[in-house]
Amino acid sequence: MGISIVxxxxxxxxxxxxxxxSTLFLLSLAQAQTYQPGQAYFGRSNYIEYISGDxxxxxxxxxxxxxxxxxIPDRLDDGSDPNFTTVTDSNTAETALALxxxxxxxxxxxxxxxxxxxxxxxxxxxxxxxQGVYNANSYATQAWNEFQNFINISSNAAVARSGIGxxxxxxxxxxxxxxxxxxxxxxxxxLSYSDVTLNQSSYRIQSSIxxxxxxxxxxxNLPFSQILRGSNSFGALMVARGYPSVPGPDMPDPGAxxxxxxxxxNTDVHSSHGSAGPVxxxxxxxxxxxxxxxxxxxxxxxxxxxxxxxxxxxxYYGLDLRLAAPCVWAGGSGKCxxxxxxxxxxxxxxxxxxxxxxxxxxxxxNLAALTIGSGRIYTMQFAANAGGSYTNFGNGISLVAGITNxxxxxxxxxxxxxxxxxxxxxxxxxxxxxxxxxxxxGFDLKLNASASFYVNSVISGSGGLFKSGGGSLFLNGPSxxxxxxxxxxxxxxxxxxxxxxxxxxxxxxxAGALLGGAGTVSGPxxxxxxxxPGNPMGMLTITNGLTFMNAGSYFWSLAANSTxxxxxxxxxxxxxxxxxxxxxxxxxxxxxTNLASAPATTNAFWRVPHTWKVISMAASTINSGMVGFKxxxxxxxPAGKFVSTVDYQGNVLLNYLPTPGPTVSPSLPGAGTSDVVxxxxxxxxxxYQLLFSTNLAGDNWQILGNVKATGTxxxxxxxxxxxxxxxxRVVIP
Length: 733
Known about the structure:
- The protein is of the alpha/beta class and 733 residues long.
- Among the domains are: 23-90 and 110-163, no CATH class; 180-286, no CATH class; 523-659, no CATH class; 676-731.
- Helix 2 (92-107) crosses helix 13 (295-317).
- Mean pLDDT is 92; it is low at 1-31.
């Protein structure tokens, strides 16, 4: 006894191993095996073929094989099976392969397919082991176990990935009436009952779609008869595509005296019948002419099944089969239309979820199914295990559920983008950069900048933009969208060289968020959080009004001890249109960065007054109330303090006023004695230092004492004043 396993798609056998296994050990091996979607695997002597899938759809073909090995004796009727037969269901194996190929092309993902390649005279895999294998032949027993076990593996994989599954046992019938006979484990007699009768729970429980019947009853309040043979039943969906089917709305039952297969062993064992498990099932007995007879007809039939299940899964199970698994780009550079660049060798189709998980590189979207106008991508993601940076370019794409960078590498998308729904683009772990123009189509776009996010292009449309995440969002392009822009968290930087970073709509900066940059923002702009022009230095232009709400803050920075060159030595807001409104609680926060120093009496720059224009008003703008900031932070130093005022044009100014130097009293009580009292006027809270010198011609001042003023006058005593001639002065250190 041996086994051969195939690891390549398209059923190209490569024999890797041949050894003796007991049936039990073989089944344990199969359970532990990792199966790749789209790849074919064979049991011992290639008697059973399994093509792994990533869709929650399972097809089996137990009666289409042609192999007649001598090691397996022919089955003989021992009387245990009243329906004993050795007739082959012609072209059902070929039909199963057509289903695999067409589904892969239609969904961009693979169904599970299990095929018995042994002729029915040797084995019947749609019977119990005792009935399907003659005289308990060990080779036939192993093949029977492999067939059944591959169905179990497929069901488990479907449930693990999607939570549900649908199993279809594909057969062929030679009855007089040319139609699909759909077997749900309900007899022809039972199907002749009225809908009212069939809607009794006992018939749903008996059926192979027990779980589906309960699901649609709960979700849509649909009676069981509707899902069994109603207007949107599987039978009705196949009839609509040119395949007469029973049961369905046109043929609710087989009709008196007409032959009909209601399902067999596999449908019984592997469906929700009995167990109420998550995998439903049915048996399809397909007529030969027009369905199984030619390759073209088999492909057409497979397409009809794919389309019917598209409706079935979307509307009943609530699952788009295109999203059952990602289409994985596993390598580096290449073209999207080259199948070998995708992990399973199957090209994505419109609506797939695309995952980049390889080594990084340039990816050219030249695949029509993923382009604007003829297709769409549900979502594009860069996997956490991606090994490098990707640059996507080529044809534009339409998106339903956004772009996310989960990788530890920066990623670039240069394709033009069109939104098909409101969605989120996310720099979740590392930077994400967009270089292609984006049309929001009236939908809102949320940009999550947990890491840095760069929009280097034009956003257009009537939808709004929301920024979330604690990182920085760089709006570097001249956008034209008209919806509202809201910064909910982190830093939004308007760094556009022309046009408007935020299009034509209002911009709101929520509490805790910050607006910065050195570009242009069309207003009105409302600051509940903060504004910090530049990055960190620069001039931010606002064209249609600026309102500081509640405790909205202006984070002003000085980069050099200078009042020249706004935008370089200090940052500035330029209001070129609209009104300026400052709430009474608005705060101007003063910061010193780069070469700038905080005020100190030892620095000559800070010993004289200075003025900076922190908000520059155009001639057409109005400062409502003609006020500056009433509240300042980091504004008071021993060397001086800052205050905010306005000039006659409404420009908001920041003024620095040095602390007046202390005036020493000319009266020196105790002069000529050992205790000379020196006093001077002071400001409470300021530290003063008393110095003395014995010679004004030299710079030999020495410290006599330090004191912190508590009022408007300070005194210190020189206890050695009589020793020699002394001169005194007071400084603020």
